[in-house]
Write a structure and sequence with these properties.
By secondary structure, this protein is an alpha/beta fold. The protein has two domains: 327 residues, FAD/NAD(P)-binding domain (3-Layer(bba) Sandwich), CATH 3.50.50.60; 221 residues, no CATH class. The strands form five sheets. Strands 1, 2, 3, 4, 5, 6, 17 and 18 form an eight-stranded mixed beta sheet that branches. Helix 1 packs parallel to helix 14 and helix 14 runs parallel beside helix 16. Bound molecules: 3-acetylpyridine adenine dinucleotide (N01).
Length: 575
Amino acid sequence: MTDRPAEVGVPFDAIVVGAGFAGLYMLHRLRGLGFTARAYEAGSGVGGTWYWNRYPGARCDIESMQYSFSFSDELDQEWDWSEKYAPQAEILSYANHVADRFDLRRDIRFDTRVTAATFDEAGKHWTVETDRGDRVSARFCIMAVGCLSAPNRPHFEGIDDFGGPVYHTGEWPQDGVDFTGLRVGVIGTGSSAIQSIPIIAQQAAALTVFQRTATYTVPAWNEALTPEYRQSVKASYPALRAKARARPTGFYFPFNMKPALEASPEEREQAYEAAWARGGLPFLGAYGDLLFDKAANDTIADFARAKIRGIVKDPATAELLCPDNVFGCKRLCVDTGYFETYNLPHVKLVDVSKAPIERFTKGGIVVAGTEYLLDAVVCATGFAAMIGSFDRIRITGRDGLTLAEKWRAGPRTYLGVAMAGFPNLFTITGPGSPSVLASMIQSIEQHVDWMVDCMAHLRDTGARSIEATHAAEDAWVEHVNEVAQVSLRSTCSSWYVGANIPGRPRVFMPYIGGFPVYVQKCNEVMSAGFEGFVLDAPAASNREPTVRLTERWRVPLDIDVISPAAVAARRVPVV
Ligand code: N01
């Protein structure tokens, strides 16, 4: 950690909290506006999620040539991804490349956690405080804190008495961990566990996986990208990006709108085999109704369970690994050799669904009276998703209202970007936006562009503040909830609904109506002069907007895929 004097009293146009992809792009765009900006980042480097999640096997599960910024054609052309799904280290290198290429570091203060943000009503500005003693103010405060950034560390009795190290996948040591020769326990079987378990198994002398809920996972079939393939994508990158923006998921892959139950069992089997052979998240695009019709979903769930039984040799272990819930209800995982790992003689699966982990001892973990001896434990227990990062900052809006109070019964936002009672505070990929249900980088770019266009509008019209109205926020929250009910995704206890954190109200947090529908709504709000917002503008200022809407978000909806009729028929595949 570098020594630096605290910044006190310095005024900025904008403060950005976080220097992951969202914070980086926001800084870049603020510069373009001529705004002064400061970003604070808790880590020692840029990258956010990809800075912290260095666990073995961490890589993206959206194809790397789409999991990248699209705002700069030069950037697209000069960066070469090595694999279909880039490993964490390469994504982090990309984040660093972006920071250097656009000279962003000089506005970022690292090793600095924002502790409080308070709105000053008279001055219409935010005062931001950090754990390094900084106290600065800005017209705008932008939360770029990430959706999956606050680790969930469940309380286990006796954990402090455990004789070995306990790691969390989301806060992995910078220098890595060598498990060679050790008896390792992994708690959890979500995406992080599924990626790390096969790699840890290669090193460990013995691996014990503690599973509470079995998980559906689809093979990645990861591979090196050839120069020819990269070149063919780069030759028509803008077209690919445009196609991606028009898709419900914000990334492009071929999918089939036909309902699963209209196909014969033989046709379905063929379609699932073909989709399995393509692998990855697009597996859910085999049919259009898989997340809307339980009977349709049963067909893909049966197929996936048959695959597990076909791979895992020990029948009892195979049964334990077969999920019994809706396919794709919890976030679908993408793996390399996950189920195969359970065929290794030194890998053991322990069911903690009925009898939970009782306690840690000095030597291991006790479940149902049996002690499993371990030298090291990996908690792959996920995150306080969507709102956990906000919980770590005391955010106080108008009239002393804190965000924690406002969100006590569940997060409330307008479009996932702003909140009544919190003027000039923006939330990038906040709850109520597509965020985690779309490709994150696309979601981030759209939010940042919208916010920057909005801030430019305020500057041009002399307005000092913008605030969502309660009515607009209420209507949006109701819409987000309503749309969620249509999807089978709302039916299980996932982190999407906050169910992984004890005491959290059960609310489906991301917007599931599809990325282009959402983008169109944001465009309409802006084009109508920021409908649903109140702007504090001088009397002389006319509210006719100099609509600045960043050109690439004037996305024509891909009507073949996401026509209003398709939405009404509940056939909007969402990954
Ligand atoms: O976290 P999770 P994650 N006792 O919440 C278990 C993204 N991501 O870090 O399901 C025992 O999914 C918990 O059990 P249960 C992606 O969006 C992306 O894996 O609650 N077990 C579950 O099995 C993903 O969805 C990538 O019953 C306990 C596991 O811990 C999201 O991040 C890679 C427990 C947590 O799974 C989160 O994934 C990684 C307890 N007390 C992550 N508490 C890629 O891009 C929790 N569990 C590929």
